[in-house]
User: Fold these one by one.
Assistant:
Number 1:
Amino acid sequence: MLCARNAAGPASALLLTATLTAALTARPIAAPAALPIAGPALALALARAAVRPTGPAADVGTPAPEAVRDALADCESGGDRQADTGNGYYGGLQILPATWQEAGGPQYAPRPDLADRAAQITVAEEIRRLQGWQAWSGCARRIGLLDRRP
């Protein structure tokens, strides 16, 4: 699916697929400069491919790459880790206080917006372990972590 959206044609799709495989398995390939995407777009595409779930809570045992965490926070709160907009959700990943509590957040701070970035990431990984990407369903769909609804 990633190749079909981002590649210019069959040869580019094969090269992108080879590059993704190389990145995920740490095997080098011959010509990465020929990719139709590069820079931050490539980094996010590789990160998405590394964590794209195949079920409701797939890939929850491996921490999400930084590019994915940042894209999710950008979508949820504009990247503002101290977000408190009055909507009942807090922090960069817009976490409900009850969810913060359930995932062990109070050991870091009373609410997500009062915790530092590292604590928010630690708690978010626990939330993802418990709920999968569905915990952030709207933004997870928007950035390609969950399949879009038909």
Number 2:
Amino acid sequence: MLTRTSFPVLDWETIRLYRLVCVNGVKFIRRKMEDTNNNCHFVTTFTQAVNLIQLGRYDIAVIPKINGMAVINKEKLVDIKKSANPLIKLNLYHYIHKKNRDIIPALTEELVKMEVSGRILAIRQTYIEENGLQ
């Protein structure tokens, strides 16, 4: 979540009190907004969401942290803040088209090795550091 001002955001109920902007295509956020009866204005891109916060038209952009930080860095915004407390942490998954099902065992084996060795975490951390997304 990104905001222009600091205020306590504790959970999905708390954000109901604010003007929210979200990005189309982020299914877990749309689902959570519907499940908690939160009103959210949906836009097409993360840049649009962050710019609407910058302009003061909305109070909170409910978007993945890494996407929001990428926009903040690209646009060189200094008065947008990320929330100290994430609303949710999720494992992300990649899907493979059924025409590629033959590679699933080898791919799974390699991904498990990368996870155990810490390589996946290292790749993510390198990406975050190289792009100033802390």
